[in-house]
Amino acid sequence: MIPRYTRPEMAELFSDQARYETWVRVEILATEAQVRLGAVPGSALEDMRRAPVPLASRVAEIEKERDHEVLSFLAAYCEEIPEESARWVHLGMTSYDLVDTALGHTLARGTDLLLDAARALRRILAERAAEHWDTVCVGRTHGVHAEPTTFGHKLAGYAFAVDRSLTRLRAAREAVAVGTVSGSVGTYALIDPAVERHVLGALGLAAEPAPSQVVARDRHAQLVQAVAALGAVVEQVALEMRLLQRTEVREVEERRTGAYQGSSAMPHKRNPTTSERLVGLARLLRGHAGTALENVALWHERDLAHQSVERVILPDSLSVGHFQVTMATELLTHLAVFPERMRAHLEQTGGLVYSSAVLAELLATGTEREKAYRGVQAAANRTLAGGTDFAAALAEEGIDLGPLGPERFLGHHDVIRERLEQLRDLED
């Protein structure tokens, strides 16, 4: 986790100290269940509750000698627990009963942060889409002027894409909010399943239905892929904002403060650095998605090949995804929009963007399709070659359909606005 791309709340969640706090909670919950079953004396539970969470620095110190994080954690924890009670700590459990159950709890909490951030992004996209619903601009296909649309329509498409990402994230949260307290190969050989039920119930987790020693890693791959898909949606938004900020376009602009400096050599520069950063972070998330899939296949009941990888990709995916989404929300909240530039670009080609309406009207009045298409195309080519007005070029082809304007293209636009309003009303 790189501090530059991590919000404080996510950094705290994935800190070493937070991990050991969760491990202590799991150990205490397991012992509570053991006490209820009569397998552990109540005094041991009280001693465990009184013991402080071991410091990460102490665990690291012991690990230099033991080369095993869980054993080092248990040793550090038990230093503050009387010997007659310490022997009951971790009773019947294996390391990954602790590690994976705590991980499921942490991933669920991290996903909740990302879900909240994604809802805020959906909300600002929907709000700004409604604000600019009638801000007419040129739609571009293949990077070339196509037909009129509105800036609000563009943003609405992104809002619905974020909404789909929320659906994927919710499913992924359910997939990773899972734990297991089932012993070395998942058979509950040395521990009563009631212990697992108590621990997972208290943490809000489901049980791995057929555990090996670990929680299945396809769950984690699903989460990382969902985060990467959301990242790609943010990238789509950011890429459009980058393209619209080019000097020759300049239909929008990122917020600039008085302290802004775009170039060390060229004082005039106003670079789309926030949008560029969002695009770059999406590339990182896609890389993690592929790596997560490679973590799914483990030897037999478990090997350790996944551990080093997920120590990087799980906190990084959630922290980078969370940072990216919150930054996108800030970008869109303060984005400057220039309707007059959009309108100017709509008319830049002398009316060529209205060619499809002309063709459709000719066909509707009975003109043979090939003749209509060739006539409109010939007028368009003259407009492109000579810079003449498209309506004048059409007249030379004997085509006069009256004034041309964007309203011809937006007659049914309100049906999309109604869908957008439904999206704005969502409270999930």
From TrEMBL:
Q: What is its EC number?
A: 4.3.2.2
Keyword annotations for this protein? Answer: Lyase
- What Gene3D superfamilies does the record point to? Fumarase/aspartase (C-terminal domain), Fumarase/aspartase (Central domain), Fumarase/aspartase (N-terminal domain)
Q: Which reaction does it catalyse?
A: N(6)-(1,2-dicarboxyethyl)-AMP = fumarate + AMP; (2S)-2-[5-amino-1-(5-phospho-beta-D-ribosyl)imidazole-4-carboxamido]succinate = 5-amino-1-(5-phospho-beta-D-ribosyl)imidazole-4-carboxamide + fumarate
Q: Which pathway does UniProt place it in?
A: Purine metabolism; AMP biosynthesis via de novo pathway; AMP from IMP: step 2/2; Purine metabolism; IMP biosynthesis via de novo pathway; 5-amino-1-(5-phospho-D-ribosyl)imidazole-4-carboxamide from 5-amino-1-(5-phospho-D-ribosyl)imidazole-4-carboxylate: step 2/2
The record ties this protein, via Pfam families, to: Lyase_1 (PF00206)
The family database entries (PROSITE patterns) matched by this protein are listed as: FUMARATE_LYASES
Work out whether the entry's keyword set contains Lyase: yes
Adenylosuccinate lyase C-terminal domain residues: 350-421
InterPro entries assigned to the protein according to its UniProt record, in alphabetical order: AdenyloSucc_lyase_C, Fumarase/histidase_N, Fumarate_lyase_CS, Fumarate_lyase_fam, Fumarate_lyase_N, L-Aspartase-like, Pur_lyase
Q: Which SMART domains match?
A: ADSL_C (SM00998)
Q: Which GO terms describe its molecular function?
A: lyase activity
Family label: Belongs to the lyase 1 family. Adenylosuccinate lyase subfamily.
Identify the PANTHER family for this entry: ADENYLOSUCCINATE LYASE
Q: What is the protein name for this chain?
A: Adenylosuccinate lyase
